[in-house]
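Hey all, quick one. A colleague (J.T.) asked me to put the pyridoxal-5'-phosphate job into the tracker so the inputs and the structure tokens live in one place instead of scattered across chat threads. No bug as far as I know, just bookkeeping. Sequence used:
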Amino acid sequence: MSKHFETQAIRNQTERSQFSEHSTPLYLTSSFVFDDAEEMRASFAEEKEKNLYSRFSNPNTTEFVNKMVAMEGAETGYAFATGMAAIFSTFGALLNAGDHIVSCRSVFGSTHTLFTKYLPKWNITTSYFKVNEVPKIESLIKPNTKILYAETPTNPAVDILDLEILGRLAKKHNLLLVIDNCFATPYLQNPIKYGADIVIHSATKLIDGQGRVLGGVAVGKADLIREIYLFSRNTGPAMSPFNAWVLSKSLETLAVRVDKHCENALKVAEFLEQNKYVNWVKYPFLKSHPQYKIAKKQMKLGGNIVAFEIKGGIAAGKNFLNAIKMCSLSANLGDTRTIVTHPASTTHSKLSDSDRLEVSITDGLVRVSVGLENVEDIIYDLNQALTKA
Ligand SMILES: Cc1ncc(COP(=O)(O)O)c(C=O)c1O
């Protein structure tokens, strides 16, 4: 099999059935049958590789996972119902009571809730560093630290963390490096190259790319994924075969879609940079991005998320959203449809001003998930809404 990304994404396919189908069919089945008692025994004993039950594996989920494993350069993986199921199951499988995590503070909101509300129930604690505090990481590591965790680019402020430094620190201190690679996709960035042990995705975003299904996946070292698999096969967060079928088809077009998303996003970022109603713009491949050099080093292109600060704070942010005509006001991202959100008045409205600033969310911050419409139409809509903010 070719090692080329696009070819892997298309030709890595479930074995054909007796019907000689060209495109992989849907295997909507909860369980699988055995020829006899001995085959059943050997399969349950894992002496024979065979699908048993779709909570454990299914041809559709296996195809999706195999593609993700190839794209990330991982050893193996497991697919989940959502990105959050992948994140929680990774912690559930790899951590013991009393363990400690060192994480970047800029993580997805529900991941932050896991760290602060749920993992402490098992006496698992987390110490945070801010995106500009990478040199502080070593001082946070304790004898019971087990995981170094980060997202890059971060949600929603598109800050970048240096994967090479994180990889080096994890190795030096014998920590597991777990990276949420959702914003980059395996097409733009492969954290395993820099020493990540586990890479997680919310497949709900660019991997689906069309706002249809939820999904998550964890890929990485075989011994760790084995623990995650055993935890998951017993606790039940598996991806449905239907969603795996949809997502595996989506992966066939990931490279072309993400190329176009990035091209549109760069044009939108350049437009916003010139706009008089905008204080600043953050996009990984704009020279003005504070971590531009790191982004260039570890990402193929800048991704589809552009963050900018509208002049006039919370009120201007809300006015901007109200004036939008074509783009969608929605909580998702990574869709063909451009989506705009204003975190300070919505997803992060319950945080105090200082807590919001800890994760780089200013009152006027707007996040644009740039879609695949004609970029002139996207810019036209943003421009007319800015004039009314
Ligand atoms: C960076 C990041 N990680 C994880 C998640 C959670 O994924 P899901 O919604 O599929 O559970 C999201 C969702 O927005 C996200 O943006």
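Adding what we noticed when we looked at it: Residues 82-84, 108, 151, 155, 180, 182, 202, 204, 214, 216 surround pyridoxal-5'-phosphate (CB under 6 Å). The longest strand covers residues 145-151.
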